[in-house]
Amino acid sequence: MEGMDMSSSTHSMSSSSPMSMSMVFQNTHDTPLFSNTWTPSSSGSFAGTCIFLIILAIIDRCLIAFKATMERHWLATHLNRRYVTVAGKNTEAGNIASDPDAKFASLITAQGVEKSVKVVHNITHGPIPWRFSVDLPRALLFLCIVGISYLLMLAVMTMNIGYFCSVLGGAFLGELAVGRFIQTNEHGH
Predict the structure, then answer these.
(1) Which residues form a coiled coil (predicted)?
(2) Alpha carbon distance 67, 141 (integer Å)
C-alpha cells in the first residue's frame, strides 16, 4: 500500500509539472508556436498564426513537387549526357579534315555539326553518378523540405486544434495545387 501511495503521489506531481504534455486537443488561442515569444494574444493574431501554418504547409508541398520535377530533369540530363563513340564510322567531317585541299571548308549537315559520337538514350539501372552540380542542389532542397516538415510537425505537436487543422488544410491545398508534379511514372515515359 505504501508503494502504491508513493507511485500515485509521483504520478500526480509529474502530471502537474509544467513540462508535462497533455495528449488531448485543445482549442485555446494562446498556444505558443515554436517559442514562447510567438504566443498569440488575440483572436486576430491566432488567425494570423493559422494562416502562416497554412502557407508553410503549401510551401512544403511546393518544394516537394519542385524536387520531384528537378529529379526528372536531372535524370533526363544524365541520360542525354551519355555518349558512345561509334567504332569504324568515318565521318564526312573527318574526311574533310584529312584532305589538305579542304582545310578551310566546313561541313554543315541537316543534323548540325557532324560528330563521331552517338547519343544513347537508355534507362539506367542503379544510381546516377555523383555530380556536384546536381547533388548540392538536391541536398539543399531536401534540407529545406525536412526543416519545414519538422516545423509543421512541431506545430501539430502543440495539440492545438487550430494549428492542426491549419497544417492539414495547407497540405490539402498544396497537394491540390501541385500534387500532379510529385507523381512519378514508374512504367516508362
Answers:
(1) none
(2) 7
What pLDDT digit, counting tens, does each position of 167-185 carry?
999 999 999 999 999 876 5
SS3 186: coil
DSSP one-letter code for 34 = S
Q: How confident is the model at residue 111 (pLDDT cuts 50, 70, 90)?
A: low
DSSP 32: -
3-state secondary structure 123-162: CCCCCCCCCHHHHHHHHHHHHHHHHHHHHHHHHHHCCEHH
Interior/surface letters 81-104, b for 16+ CB within 10 angstroms, e for the rest: eeeeeeeeeeeebeebeeeeeeee
Q: CB of 178 within 8 A of CB of 61? A: yes
- The pLDDT value given to residue 75: 86
Q: Nine-digit cell at 4?
A: 502504491
Q: What are the φ and ψ backbone dihedral angles of 105, each rounded to 5 degrees? A: -85, 150
β-bridge mates for residue 118, sequence order: 84
Query: Measuring CA to CA, which residue among 178, 174, 170, 182 is closest to residue 68?
Result: 182
The rounded distance, in Å, linking the Cα atoms of 87 and 161 is 68
What pLDDT does residue 187 have? 45
